[in-house]
Amino acid sequence: xxxxxxxxxxxxxxxxxxxxxxxxxxxxxxxxxxxxxxxxxxxxxxxxxxxxxxxxxxxxxxxxxxxxxxxxxxxxxxxxxxxxxxxxxxxxxxxxxxxxxxxxxxxxxxxxxxxxxxxxxxxxxxxxxxxxxxxxxxxxxxxxxxxxxxxxxxxxxxxxxxxxxxxxxxxxxxxxxxxxxxxxxxxxxx
Length: 190
Hints:
0% strand; single chain
């Protein structure tokens, strides 16, 4: 029988597990930050502007209100992720390298094994006509995001008492929400 992994340094222990609202707030913040960072990098380096210009891309233009509300709407996905992580919090946050387990959950179920047939999923490779290389290209965005989200969330939950971390992530989150919102208020150029 294997011994349980020791609790990592920080304030997390079996007796002091994160409450749902705390975990949900942290998950929303970490998800939104990694979503914005990886989205911006992918938009630039994977040339999403060229893809979006194609009328058959199935993507909304970057100026769409839906796209501009993309970051604020991530609150729903963050809460969804937290609702999955919460019942497993002792296994995910209470062990060394728990962030890898979080990442594998996101990658294995959320990316590769989803029940739908989006590009890059197992079903996508089987049922869509999208070329495999195009589907694999998406991994350059979503896999690093899953890894970053997992590592950041794991660190934050296990070091909840670090006020500088709370403030830094809170300010960065506010910027991620406010900047796209300000684009909606900016006067239209004719």
